[in-house]
């Protein structure tokens, strides 16, 4: 498999999304307005620089006309808006990005444009290849610049920029394609009309980092282990209707209200919640009675308290509690008694086997003493959590 940077970062944010998009090659049932906005702004800026290559400088009005025309033509019902704004708010936002960009950079003749929307394909080592698309490559006084337009509403810190592998990878691609070493990375954060530049003598550390990330993906592929990973990105995920975390919600939405009220899962959750509440109330009640029983036993100096079917045996006794676990451990170690009282943490061992952080030969030795058991837990949570 050839990896694109977007695939690698998609795995980092959610392994399931990676599987759906890049292994199963399933087309997302819908697209977020943020992605749509990003595509429209990118193609408008590409048009601006491509026309410039042909000696034509677009006026701001022409640029916006192109953007709005494409917006209208490409807009469809499958584009969804997750927030309380509507598509029109986003169109205006994109327009503002272009106006700010145009006014900041006109007449767009800083350096020579080498390529626009350039698809690159290059080896990381003798095993892995990476592909990607560079928004714009420019040469300024012999220095190659990799330009990338970001339309998100998040402005990263300098540290985050320095740790970002995407443009560093593209620098490696340029070295591979053109044999150039002097490369500057330029991020355009359009929502803030802000440009951030980074120039390093070498971008090789990104190569190592990305190889590590690919190896993690390869391990997941061997185990076919692509769990959904819920995060703040889920509301914008194009795969929600296919994701096990959200597809039931979509199924209900597609039903008539009356039908949804009697749907199997819907009624079971309601019943489960109702019973859980009753149990919680009963447990609270039982705790109150327990306290009263202890009080009764103390006051009347009895250990057995008799009911009609059951006798309550109320044992009141004292245990030793240690205030400082670390001190106890250290004393027992010094006295050579630690092993006698130490308890193995099998949950941690099992987790380390799952995460493959135990040495492989140890896992092999443990394998014949292991068995896989299915665990089922049900947590009930409020529907408001995603808001
Ligand atoms: S909705 Fe969230 S958990 Fe589900 S596939 Fe998308 S990102 Fe992953």
Can you offer a commentary on this structure?
This protein folds into 3 domains: 3-223, Alpha-Beta Complex (Lambda Exonuclease, Chain A), CATH 3.90.320; 271-313, no CATH class; 325-367, no CATH class. 50% of the residues lie in helices and 15% in strands. The chain has helices at residues 5-13, 15-23, 33-53, 60-74, 87-105, 158-163, 166-178, 204-223, 247-254, 257-261, 264-300, 325-334, 338-341, 346-354, 360-367; strands at residues 3-4, 31-32, 79-80, 112-123, 129-140, 143-150, 183-189, 194-199, 304-306, 311-313. Helix 1 runs antiparallel to helix 2 (15-23) and helix 4 (60-74) runs antiparallel to helix 5 (87-105). The radius of gyration is 30 Å and the shape is extended. Iron/sulfur cluster binds next to helix 2.
What labels describe this entry?
single chain, 387 residues, alpha/beta, Lambda Exonuclease, Chain A, 3 domains, six-stranded mixed β-sheet, two-stranded parallel sheet, 15 helices, extended, binds iron/sulfur cluster
């Amino acid at each position: 498999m050839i990896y694109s940077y977007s695939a690698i970062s998609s795995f980092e944010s959610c392994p399931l999304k990676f599987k759906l998009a890049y292994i199963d090659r399933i087309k997302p049932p819908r697209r977020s307005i943020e992605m749509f906005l990003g595509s429209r702004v990118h193609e408008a800026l590409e048009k601006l620089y491509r026309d410039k290559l042909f000696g034509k400088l677009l006026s701001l009005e022409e640029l916006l006309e192109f953007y709005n025309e494409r917006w209208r033509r490409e807009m469809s019902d499958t584009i969804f808006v997750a927030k309380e704004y509507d598509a029109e708010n986003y169109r205006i936002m994109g327009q503002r990005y272009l106006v700010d960009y145009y006014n900041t950079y006109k007449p767009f003749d800083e350096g020579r444009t080498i390529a626009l929307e350039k698809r690159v394909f290059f080896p990381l080592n003798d095993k892995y290849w990476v592909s990607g698309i560079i928004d714009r490559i420019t040469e300024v006084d012999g220095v190659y610049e990799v330009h990338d337009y970001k339309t998100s509403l998040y402005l990263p810190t300098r540290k985050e920029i320095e740790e970002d592998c995407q443009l560093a990878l593209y620098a490696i691609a340029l070295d591979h394609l053109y044999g150039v070493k002097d490369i500057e990375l330029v991020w355009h954060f359009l929502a803030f009309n802000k440009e951030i530049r980074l120039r390093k003598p070498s971008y090789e550390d990104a190569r190592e980092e990305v190889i590590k990330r690919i190896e993690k993906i390869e391990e997941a592929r061997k185990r076919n282990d692509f769990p959904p990973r819920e995060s703040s990105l889920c509301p914008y995920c194009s795969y929600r209707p296919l994701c096990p975390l959200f597809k039931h919600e979509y199924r209900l939405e597609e039903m008539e209200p009356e039908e949804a009220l009697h749907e199997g899962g819907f009624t079971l959750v309601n019943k489960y919640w109702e019973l859980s509440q009753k149990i919680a109330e009963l447990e609270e009640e039982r705790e109150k009675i327990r306290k009263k029983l202890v009080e009764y036993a103390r006051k009347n100096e009895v250990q057995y308290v008799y009911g009609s079917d059951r006798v309550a045996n109320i044992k009141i006794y004292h245990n030793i509690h240690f205030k400082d676990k670390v001190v106890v451990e250290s004393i027992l170690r010094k006295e050579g008694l630690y092993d006698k009282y130490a308890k193995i943490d099998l949950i941690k061992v099992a987790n380390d086997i799952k995460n493959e952080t135990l040495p492989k030969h140890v896992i092999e030795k443990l394998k014949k003493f292991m068995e896989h058991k299915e665990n089922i837990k049900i947590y009930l949570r409020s529907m408001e959590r995603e808001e």
